[in-house]
Amino acid sequence: MCLSVSGRSLSLTCVSLRSLSLLHVFDSGHSLQYYSTAVSVPGYGLPEFSTVTYVDGIQIMNYNSDSGRDVPVAQWMERRGQDYWERNTQICKGVEAAFKQNVKTEMQHNNQTGGFHAYQRMTGCELRDDGSIWVYDQHGYDGKDFLALDTERLVYIPLTDEAQVTAQRWNSPEERLGDYHKNYLENRCIEELRKFLQYGKEELDRRGGQGWGRSNRG
């Protein structure tokens, strides 16, 4: 999901966020990752919003604002019933609305009245063979790392001066999004990962976990 439009490169966001994830590789295990992007102006071949889901580096489903549907990509995900896809579509629509608002909010914080701008998020969980887990939630705006969840202190760390306003709001006693998102990732995300591993066991075992979302280092 690296973007480069009108001379403003968002590839730094993709590279830095993904590199940060890969810096925390583990000896063996599995990962569930979500990559989401919202743009201020649709075009350049990009939908206004999209989110892509990976298990062990294999894309399993995606949603975008053009289709308005969450759909399976991996064949084994087609085993999920219609109710699952209907429910997931409604969840994605809610995330889409939130991301569109994020773009507008950050444009206001940066005194931007127009032009192409993008908000990106990489979040997920990893289940190691020893039973331990690792979770992360990282955000980017206009080609720069923007916010990152400190899972120890349960707060979002601003990575640019412009991110401080959003970090203060997310960390406020009224919102406490760090606490909420860590709890979600350590529980619901891991629960979903276990289910996906069951559905896709044959393909995942055949691939041997060679996707970029899994490490087999000895």
TrEMBL record:
<dbReference type="InterPro" id="IPR050208">
    <property type="entry name" value="MHC_class-I_related"/>
</dbReference>
<keyword id="KW-0325">Glycoprotein</keyword>
<dbReference type="InterPro" id="IPR037055">
    <property type="entry name" value="MHC_I-like_Ag-recog_sf"/>
</dbReference>
<dbReference type="Pfam" id="PF00129">
    <property type="entry name" value="MHC_I"/>
</dbReference>
<comment type="similarity">
    <text>Belongs to the MHC class I family.</text>
</comment>
<protein>
    <recommendedName>
        <fullName>MHC class I-like antigen recognition-like domain-containing protein</fullName>
    </recommendedName>
</protein>
<dbReference type="InterPro" id="IPR011162">
    <property type="entry name" value="MHC_I/II-like_Ag-recog"/>
</dbReference>
<dbReference type="GO" id="GO:0005615">
    <property type="term" value="C:extracellular space"/>
</dbReference>
<dbReference type="InterPro" id="IPR011161">
    <property type="entry name" value="MHC_I-like_Ag-recog"/>
</dbReference>
<dbReference type="GO" id="GO:0006955">
    <property type="term" value="P:immune response"/>
</dbReference>
<dbReference type="InterPro" id="IPR001039">
    <property type="entry name" value="MHC_I_a_a1/a2"/>
</dbReference>
<feature type="domain" description="MHC class I-like antigen recognition-like">
    <location>
        <begin position="30"/>
        <end position="204"/>
    </location>
</feature>
<dbReference type="GO" id="GO:0009897">
    <property type="term" value="C:external side of plasma membrane"/>
</dbReference>
